Structures are given as structure tokens and as C-alpha cells.
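Quick one, probably user error.
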């Protein structure tokens, strides 16, 4: 089915988005229209789930953990990372749980030898080519699936991938693992693009483009292993179409996109999420009333996110809500 170009105002009205209306991390429940129940077998349990649900929806409702990277609760599935692959009886290949809809009589296995082997390989390929040090949960998955990204050899020497001449990827000589390493792009005061951590999940492109922001400031440039996220002609962000909404940061699963504050504090060794508090409030800049979650450390705002289950913004903000908080902590004495 082709994606609709009309932006849905509510997730449950969009046939291409996941139909369930609950955030995976808990939150609001919008019952929407009643739907027929579909019966299937999930890890030897006979269960029912609303028609139109994905396998991932059904797993989540049952408390079955399926690892995901490119899936986003505010975005249409992209099927890019292949972390969520499960076995479906009668299917020759593994199928992505994040996008495959359930059908009557479907028999699904989420934790078989084949799915575990597939996830191990995905983790090894991603881990050998991208820096996953700030990807939540990935260390636990590596241990659980016995992934060893180091078996492909040490990382190849870094280079600026934007400088590579377009064309075919040079075949590696086998002694080192090809990587997506490149210097972090620090070209503005608000956020940093560290594409050495990019797994090319496309979530930022979708958030920036027709699924939410409609700025189309970023897209995929290059092909094959040279494919990378880029502005037009690799222009610095201030010279691009970017409006600094930060909605790309909100959905990035690896920390490739981050607040400049976070990037600087990580470099200084002062970033410590265990010491951070989160306070959800309402943005005061205009009457739309977006929810903002302020992440504070040592009584300073260090990052701003937005609840994905908010019916106002669905996790999206504009530049004011996302970055316009410096005045709050400007404690210069008045003249
Ligand atoms: S900040 Fe907004 S406009 Fe800029 S690249 Fe990210 S999503 Fe696009
Ligand atoms: S920058 Fe982040 S959101 Fe964008 S493709 Fe890379 S990993 Fe995905
Ligand atoms: S989470 Fe399903 S393919 Fe990435």
C-alpha cells in the first residue's frame, strides 16, 4: 500500500500507521472505532488482537519484548533496521514485526533460533559500522544475542564521507571493518549531527518531511554503503532549509542527532542521566499549548523533549518550544 500524503491528525485514522492508540511506553488510550478481533498464535499462546494491528502491537499488548530501532511510535514503519524480525509459519523469510499486520490463524514465533541469529547478525553489522555507544538498550541486546561486532576486524580509518567522490563503494580488503565514521557536524549553537552514530533508519527524514514537519531539510544522499543523511548539497545547517524544530532529534534512536548542550556535556564528561529530572509542562510561547518535557541537571535545562502521546504535538515542537529556554536560566544580575 502506498503511504498517504495527507497528514493524519490522529494516528488511529491513518491506515498506514500502527492502529493501536497506546504509546508503547504507556500513555493515553483513544478507543477509536470498534474493530473486529483477529485470532492468532503468538509464541504458543492463542491470543486475539484488533484487526489492523501489527505483530509488534500484539506483542506489546502481551508484554513480549521485540527489539526495535527504526520503528517509531509517531511514525509509519520504515522496515529499515530489521531488528524486529520474527518467524511466521508459512513464510519463507523472516518478517518485520513492526509493520506486518496480523491475520486470522497466523502463527508467530518471536524468539526462535532463527530470529535470534538474525538479530545477532543485524547487531554485529550495525555495531561494526556505526558508533552505538549512545543507543539505549543496545548493550543489553548485544549480550542477549551474543553479538560480536569486533569479529569483522578493527574499524577502518575514519574519513569525511561527504568528501567521497560519488560512485561505487570501494571494496574493503577484509582486514578492517568499513564504518560510517565521520567528524561530528557542529555548525550551529542548537544541535549537533554526529553521523558516525547513524544507522540510516530514516526516522529523521520522515519527521522532517511529509510525516510531520514538511521542511524537507534532510534526505538520503548517495547509494549503497555510501548512503547517508544530508542536507541539500551537504550545506551547513544554517544555510539549509532547516527550521530548527528538533523533531529529527526527538525520533533519532542512536543519539546521532543531539542537543548541543548534551554533545558538549558528553565531551566534558558531565552528562549524567541518573542525575536528571524530567518535568512535563506546557510551552508558554503561543496558544497552541504543546507539551514540553524539560530535562534538568543541576537545576539547568539540558534538553527538551515532548511526550509522544500528547494529542497536541505528538512529540513534535517548533524551535521556540524545543530550544527557546536559555532565558529561563540566564541568571545575570539585572543592571
Ligand atoms: S530540526 Fe526540523 S527542519 Fe531541521 S532537519 Fe530537523 S526536522 Fe528538519
Ligand atoms: S540521524 Fe538518527 S534518525 Fe536519522 S537516519 Fe541516522 S540514526 Fe536514524
Ligand atoms: S524496527 Fe522493524 S524493521 Fe526496524
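Nope, works fine. Designed sequence:
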Amino acid at each position: 500500500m502506498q503511504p498517504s500524503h495527507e497528514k493524519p491528525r490522529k494516528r488511529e485514522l491513518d491506515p498506514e500507521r500502527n492502529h493501536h492508540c497506546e504509546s508503547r511506553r504507556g500513555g493515553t488510550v483513544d478507543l477509536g472505532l470498534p474493530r473486529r478481533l483477529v485470532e492468532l498464535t503468538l509464541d504458543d499462546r492463542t491470543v486475539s488482537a484488533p484487526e489492523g494491528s501489527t505483530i509488534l502491537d500484539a506483542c506489546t499488548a502481551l508484554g513480549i519484548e521485540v527489539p526495535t530501532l527504526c520503528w517509531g511510535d509517531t511514525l509509519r514503519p520504515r522496515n529499515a533496521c530489521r531488528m524486529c524480525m520474527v518467524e511466521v509459519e508459512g513464510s519463507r523469510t523472516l518478517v518485520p514485526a513492526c509493520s506486518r499486520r496480523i491475520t486470522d490463524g497466523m502463527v508467530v514465533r518471536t524468539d526462535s533460533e532463527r530470529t535470534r541469529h538474525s538479530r545477532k547478525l543485524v547487531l554485529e553489522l550495525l555495531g561494526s559500522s556505526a558508533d552505538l555507544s549512545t543507543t539505549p538498550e543496545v548493550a543489553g541486546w548485544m549480550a542477549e544475542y551474543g553479538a560480536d561486532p569486533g569479529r569483522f576486524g578493527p574499524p577502518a580509518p575514519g574519513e569525511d564521507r561527504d568528501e567521497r567522490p560519488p560512485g561505487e563503494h570501494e571494496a574493503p580488503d577484509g582486514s578492517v571493518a568499513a564504518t560510517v565514521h565521520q567528524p561530528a557536524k557542529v555548525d550551529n549553537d542548537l544541535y549537533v549531527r554526529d553521523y558516525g552514530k547513524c544507522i540510516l533508519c530514516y526516522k529523521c527524514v520522515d519527521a522532517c518531511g511529509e510525516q510531520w514537519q514538511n521542511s524537507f531539510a534532510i534526505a538520503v544522499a548517495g547509494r549503497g554503503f555510501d548512503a547517508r543523511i544530508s542536507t541539500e548539497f551537504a550545506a551547513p545547517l544554517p544555510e539549509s532549509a532547516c527550521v530548527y524544530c528538533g523533531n529529527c532529534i526527538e525520533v533519532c534512536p542512536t543519539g546521532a542527532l543531539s542537543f548541543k548542550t548534551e554533545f558538549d556535556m558528553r565531551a566534558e564528561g558531565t552528562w549524567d542521566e541518573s542525575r536528571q529530572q524530567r518535568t512535563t509542562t506546557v510551552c508558554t510561547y503561543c496558544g497552541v499549548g504543546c507539551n514540553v518535557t524539560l530535562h534538568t541537571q543541576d537545576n539547568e535545562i539540558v534538553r527538551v523533549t515532548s511526550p509522544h502521546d500528547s494529542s497536541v504535538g505528538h512529540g513534535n515542537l517548533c524551535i521556540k518550544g524545543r530550544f527557546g529556554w536559555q532565558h529561563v536560566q540566564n541568571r545575570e544580575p539585572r543592571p
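The pocket of iron/sulfur cluster (ligand 2) is lined by residues 198-204, 229, 251-254, 256-257 (CB under 6 Å).
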